[in-house]
Amino acid sequence: MKIGIDKIGFYAPHLFVDMNKLAVSRNVEPEKFTIGIGQEKMSIPPITQDPVTLAANAALEVLDEKDKEAIDFVIFGTESGIDSSKSAGVYVHDLLGLNPYARVIEVKQACYGATAGIQMAKGHIALNPKSKVLVLGSDIARYGLDTPGEATQGAGAVALVISADPNIMALEDQSVYFTSDIMDFWRPVYSDKAFVDGKLSNEQYISFFSKVWEQYKTKSGLELNDFEAICFHLPYTKMGLKALKTVLDEGSEDAKERLVANYKISTGYNRNVGNIYTGSLYLSLLSLIEQKDDLAERSRIGLFSYGSGAVGEFFTGILQPNYREHLYVGKHNNLFSARKEVTVPEYEEIFQQTLPTDGSTVNLDINNDPASICLSGMDDNKRQYVNKVK
Ligand code: HMG
Predict the structure, then answer these.
(1) Which residues does the UniProt record annotate as the domain Hydroxymethylglutaryl-coenzyme A synthase N-terminal (predicted)?
(2) Assuming Cys at both sites, which of 184, 263, 279, 302 could form a disulfide with 137, CB separation 3.0 to 4.6 Å?
């Protein structure tokens, strides 16, 4: 039985800052951000969007009534969750009106959470072939104003429906995963910003890729030439390229050219959104399959997932016949073209807005947020959500 990705939804907030302008205001040459880091625009979440609403908006655009009935497992991958106890997925389950006979959990391992969710979903479908699993990857990446990590912030979510006989991509069985306790990036529970050892994190990303790739080749008998494209977790778009370059010489001239060209296409959305942590790899996959019109059916795509701390995994999928008919290219083009630029001072002001932590009531103005699902306020330490289209 084939199991894999049946649908992919995506949502990013409607505001962005231009990286050229951010560079100027930080006294940095714009090319450092646009070429050295490889980012053009960075998504800015207004206070009316949080990881719950981002995920719910990503799922809303793809789920039909049949999906809502068949989904009996929701796995919410995030490292910027809003509650240490209650799963963010339970709010999404309600906002989307999903079947109540469902299991809902939140999983965390930095940017690896959604990949763990997909692999769990695969097992669940193998035992329950008629059911579907909704895997969400949703995060707001925050390092702080005027910090080295600032240029690698972002916000957004992906929603993946995992099912038997999937319409988009069948996941292959071979997969290699690796864990090692490393302090390259972490966020203590008392902090709303991540701490990072930037240089170490870059080194570990490459080192984990090398470990899982070498083991994958031994286990599967496949080689670089067997891949149409490799998608990477993209904290910033230069990072995946650094990893890809470490293996390119293993391929034929044709393969090298193909993999570099497809890598570029796979970074298009991420370059304009920034790091969305656990959803980043799947945003890259979406960018590739939506923006490369002639990507052949039955192509094998490699996927490298990395979550600091750290866990890495390399796995693969095969694009299914007629997969293009199941994408939402028009919707995503509209999402990008409807976004509104904010100035650097406006971004800084939004960045510093906070919700009350003393139980007081606040009502947020959701009229300026075009998203269907918004955070409308807080009352008695409870977040209030609105689905404008329910
Ligand atoms: P930095 O120290 O400001 O930058 O931090 P840099 O000095 O290393 O420069 C960056 C690149 O720009 C360099 O290129 C420069 O040469 C180049 P590289 O040597 O790396 O190829 N550069 C220029 N290029 C063109 N024109 C110029 C110019 N000037 C310089 N004029 C860093 C960069 C990424 C470390 C920082 O932003 C950071 O700490 N970010 C957060 C950590 C991160 O993203 N790490 C990535 C791997 S870890 C990961 O992926 C997991 C993560 O997603 C978290 C999770 O799992 O939850 C982060």
Answers:
(1) 2-165
(2) 279
Q: Is 111 a catalytic residue?
A: yes
Which residue's alpha carbon is nearest to atom 1 within ligand 1? 148
Residue nearest to atom 2 of ligand 1 (CA): 148
User: Whole-angstrom Cα distance, residue 277 to residue 79?
Assistant: 8
In angstroms, the CA 96 to CA 118 distance is: 20
Class in CATH terms, 172-322: alpha beta
Class of the CATH domain delimited by 3-169+327-387:
alpha beta
Mean pLDDT of the chain: 98
Q: Which of the following is catalytic: 150, 233, 332, 374?
A: 233
Residue type, 114: A
Please say whether the beta carbons of 160 and 283 come within 8 A. Answer: no
Single pTM value for the model: 0.98
Q: Is the predicted pLDDT of residue 127 greater than 90, yes or no?
A: yes
Q: Is the model's pLDDT at 390 over the cut of 90?
A: no
Q: Where are the domains of the chain?
A: 3-169+327-387, 172-322
- Residue 9: name the closest of 290, 352, 364, 233 by CA: 290
246 phi and psi angles, rounded to 5 deg: -70, -15
Summarize the confidence of residues 320-331 as an average pLDDT.
97
